[in-house]
Amino acid sequence: MPLYTFIGDIHSAADDLAVLLANPEIAATRLIFLGDYIDGTAARYFGHYTESASLAPLKVLAMISERVRQAGDVALLGNHDAFWLRTAHGDDSATATWVLNGGHRTWRKLGIYSSNPEHVRRALNGVLLKPYTDFLAHLPLMWQQGRLLAMHAGVNWQYPLTQQSPDDLLWIRDNYYDDFTTVGHRWHRNLFNKVMVTGHTPVQTFAGSHLGYLKMQADAQDVPRYLIDAGSRSGRFDGGIGALTLTADGEFVRAKRVIKSHVYDGQQVVTPAMIMDNEH
What we know:
This protein is of the alpha/beta class.
């Protein structure tokens, strides 16, 4: 039975991505990238001190496009990747929102040193960057295979899968995660009867979540949903790239996450001391 590995938000962490792709257990599976390949912050906050990490959006895009082209892997579009596309198409509103979400840092890494929207648009459509723009333009918003279903952010439960809006697939959060009709916190029931995998929201933002992924079920009979954004280049000390491997029937096989080029078990709680110890 084939195995599928879903890889969460990367956010320009080419060093961690290279380590993840070199892992033999990961390499033996088909990869489904969930979007947000660009942007990110270089800072990593440990509380008592801050360190800097590298941002390499073009290297990330090159690695992923090669996997798609040569290995037949799947890459989905994320909301940050959509900023690039919409800016390239002349959407000044998207450009302004991109700035608020780290776009100016990405532009410098792309060799763009002007904040003028027209200048940025021309650069994204220029000879050096157009291959990446074209690659992003062909990425789907959703992937499904049998009982497996993946998209960047989630779905709007009010509509069938065939009527989901791009904005919801790229941006939705609370209404996808939670059931607000119940007293107290409860995960929304999975209405599509498919094992769903998403990124978009770092698992660290959920109270009590200390692993590389989050499993969501309304109850024991509910078909599980997985959130695997492990906070790569988010500033969090344990931010890394999450990877979840499932069977074609959606059965859990393993989870991993890469933090500062070190592979951890995705079911392992990672502490600041562990991350610092791995540097020596």
